[in-house]
Hints:
2,3-Dihydroxybiphenyl 1,2-Dioxygenase, domain 1; homotetramer; 318 residues; alpha/beta; 9-stranded mixed β-sheet
Amino acid sequence: MTDIAHLGHVEVYTDRFDESLDFFTRVYGLTMSGQDETSAYLRAWDDYEFHTLKLTRHHTTGVGHIGYRASSEAALMRRVEAIEASRFKSIGWVDGDLGHGRAYRFEDPFGHVFEIYWDTNRYEPGPGDTSALKNMSSRFHARGACPRRLDHLNLLSADVTVFREFMETCLGSRVTEMIQLDNGRLGGCWFTVNNKTYDLACTEEHGGGEGRLHHVTYATDQREDILRAADIFLENGVHIETGPHKHAIQGTFFLYVWEPAGNRVELANAGARLILAPDWERVVWTEADRKKGQAWGLKTIETFHTHGTPPVPGKPDS
Amino acid sequence: MTDIAHLGHVEVYTDRFDESLDFFTRVYGLTMSGQDETSAYLRAWDDYEFHTLKLTRHHTTGVGHIGYRASSEAALMRRVEAIEASRFKSIGWVDGDLGHGRAYRFEDPFGHVFEIYWDTNRYEPGPGDTSALKNMSSRFHARGACPRRLDHLNLLSADVTVFREFMETCLGSRVTEMIQLDNGRLGGCWFTVNNKTYDLACTEEHGGGEGRLHHVTYATDQREDILRAADIFLENGVHIETGPHKHAIQGTFFLYVWEPAGNRVELANAGARLILAPDWERVVWTEADRKKGQAWGLKTIETFHTHGTPPVPGKPDS
Amino acid sequence: MTDIAHLGHVEVYTDRFDESLDFFTRVYGLTMSGQDETSAYLRAWDDYEFHTLKLTRHHTTGVGHIGYRASSEAALMRRVEAIEASRFKSIGWVDGDLGHGRAYRFEDPFGHVFEIYWDTNRYEPGPGDTSALKNMSSRFHARGACPRRLDHLNLLSADVTVFREFMETCLGSRVTEMIQLDNGRLGGCWFTVNNKTYDLACTEEHGGGEGRLHHVTYATDQREDILRAADIFLENGVHIETGPHKHAIQGTFFLYVWEPAGNRVELANAGARLILAPDWERVVWTEADRKKGQAWGLKTIETFHTHGTPPVPGKPDS
Amino acid sequence: MTDIAHLGHVEVYTDRFDESLDFFTRVYGLTMSGQDETSAYLRAWDDYEFHTLKLTRHHTTGVGHIGYRASSEAALMRRVEAIEASRFKSIGWVDGDLGHGRAYRFEDPFGHVFEIYWDTNRYEPGPGDTSALKNMSSRFHARGACPRRLDHLNLLSADVTVFREFMETCLGSRVTEMIQLDNGRLGGCWFTVNNKTYDLACTEEHGGGEGRLHHVTYATDQREDILRAADIFLENGVHIETGPHKHAIQGTFFLYVWEPAGNRVELANAGARLILAPDWERVVWTEADRKKGQAWGLKTIETFHTHGTPPVPGKPDS
């Protein structure tokens, strides 16, 4: 096991807290396990930790911070040492919130705040929330789209090559697939710390923003769950941006919507695909490859390349 | 990453080689990447190695050996050292076959032969076999049940507690779920070396055999693939033993059939379930739990508890 | 178009009204469009009439009456004439209830009451219940199992041959598949008045009851909806009797549960199968055929052959 | 039952016969039941007639003729009388081909030839083609996309209002949904003669052609079959025009591809949706409705509005 075990949680900012919370619980199908003055702590029904999404009232949208869980206390300390020895910005230790113990924070050169932690609060289901199957983290509640677990997030940065160095250095993450642009730059990188095909993607910022979020994604058990979710979004007046369709990169079946505050949220299904090879040969996509569209030919719509959160003042669809 | 990266391949014996080969390629949907005097080397369309199933002509049915791939050459040597220092039986180095380089063999106390290796032959698709998507190991051929990759196998042993010690000591594997019998014995253990929920299960031998195989399993991308496969098996006269249904243990959606020589073969889908927690709390099933049947109530049929390969002379359905 | 257009609704009796209503609305996923002193009127989200299930407080369980809608006023009158000219029992005209206009009632020799009607109350969705797609009868609400529409029901009778004559004479229904027992009797008949493969089945009563119901069924759009429903039933403590699996007869994918009062309720999916041939050649199943089990080999459990509602005093599982 | 029972078959012209035949059998998954000098007779595995697609060598692409089966010999004669009494063009009786007996031909004002017939040749499966389930028309072969049955076709005409009169007069067909353009014209009509939601659609010709075909469609049992088919088309180099996605009109889940000669072919799944109401209230879509895109927001690509077969000389994508 690598030092970092898995993506733990994402803090998402919203300037329409009540509407966002209603979306994430009633429509998207997460459940609130707690709240404090500023935030609601949400999780999917089979997430084992207290929360995987921290939804926070804020004057902007976008990402607050990204949390990864270490593999052990010792592994955590090894990572802290590596970060402090690196050229990247350390913030230092913070107390945990409702979801976990102390965490070490650091920042990428594009303004995204990360944290790593070991002590976590496992979710303990109450009487109405305990599954009939003792190996499930809580009851399959079947409310809304009802994904199983947090899957990944996608950040935007002005220089993906630098971001890649940040991920490799600070988290020991590896690149499984990437886009090599004709101009020599990296268009995007897909990273993983475990057998998932990716837990974080970074694509090039085209909107001019700083520290922006492209999307956060939860995983469904079946593709059919995503088709069903499309009808749920439709009936609830949610803006469906694109999908359902299948990505060429990573082969993931996807659906993108915008939650009420404008943050892009995805549902995804990777089928049985995993990266099991310890010496996985990185897949490199060229611009020519990308011109073929997504796996089944869909051309991604314009907003997918420009919209991120927070929006950039004066830029349409950003 | 642990020393052992993943289950690599299973060698299955058949005393009806031609019929078994026809089943595995035309009906089950694996593809032959090579053959030698005794064996056909088969893989699922997205398995990255040369083979994941070695089908071998033999005077019996059952399992020839089980291969796990190490995470590196150094990790391989660490494991060899641990095995040699243990109370378990070392066999020693063997040359690889068509699928991989040298391998170190050892044996559990119940007669199952294991091997670990690092050097592997990646599958290189030819012109007619290259996928339109460059991140797929070969073309999705859509022939037969067409699973995506090798998933796990299930062995039988007279003492699951001892088998567990063997797996922990020799492979550094961990138990994610297990059956605790009222008589104090372990009824079964589910092991993993990575984020898969299990790659090997061992259940108690009730038929009196030695070194027997319960089943080998490949993973499909969707549950619907398994429902479709049930019709394919039906139309091809394959013996469907039980399923499709959902296991209580591990929550896997399953279908069990017997290939022409009698080896039990499964198709399974775990949805998006993974073991991401580095400190996963082992799930313990009691006999009382088991009496409820599988997840949706199906009582497992008698042969599931008695049939293994090779059959035990004089025992019906064994 | 034949004189009778389609199965319109089924009245189900319950001696646990509140629990049954909670089951049918919250778990099974029907919606209440109205109620009167004795009954709740329920429908699936794409049923076009005011109700398809009339759930009635009663001192027993079982079926109250079965309603079929005629193709026109003239067709209704032709059927009334045919019924009155037959050897079967006429009851006469009754006022409609909340769901439809006047109806003509008659009875089969086994105590099941039928009615036919033309005037109906179409369901008019209110503001919170109108679909985003104008061709849907109401909003896809995604609550519970959420089937699309009423599909069929199954009655028990002591003499299926007589019941068949009743259906052909009174409703002009046709038999699409049937079971021919070795003793010369009919074990069951599957009837339809339109292109559905069946809207009513009648199987031989083995429990000794009179006028009993075997089950009522709603149709889901996909098989995957039924697998998902199985988890919903599991998590809500509903008794799952058998399935999900595929029937040999009619090829329907099925799941049977008992609602809180004991009435058997099914979810079914027939895929794209329809009876389009005007001269469809009836399919006859023998006892030998039936011994093979359901399509994928499942042997139907004992209660499926004995349990009906109302239960017969003194008979287990009846 | 109306005079006309169902859509029986479509004759499709191809100027690349061998490639088209390979596509329809190996990739799309139909089976050839016979051939004569000019044509191959193809059917889906559960079509009950000898053929549902007649693929004919021709110097053009497009539709040869459209066959509907009558409900009886008497019904056939009633229709012939109605056609001859109408203002539409009678062609007269022709001998049947390999698939059916004599047929009466007539023509719409836009050059599409129709025929109606009663005598048909049921498909009789041979030893290798008989299903394990006696109620299936032949074995589920699982080759290619493997749809279950013919579903519908879509024709283009310069005046949909006139085409509608033709369908109502000659076939007694009814309109279930239609597009009402702001300019007062009909943009499209969806017709059915039975409980299917539609068996023929006619949309306005924008390419300037005469008697053109927009597409022919077969039905799959599940939406998941269509997602799987998308991968099959991808891996076989078939041009995927648009989809998988869900139509707003009729709510059908769809995927459109072009077979090698350029004829557009669809796979579709309607879930459990049927038109059971004898007095179905026609659904009228306005241009404003249509601007919302398909059900989940996809804007239909340009070629979908311009491409038909045969292509119009000098018009791109026509």
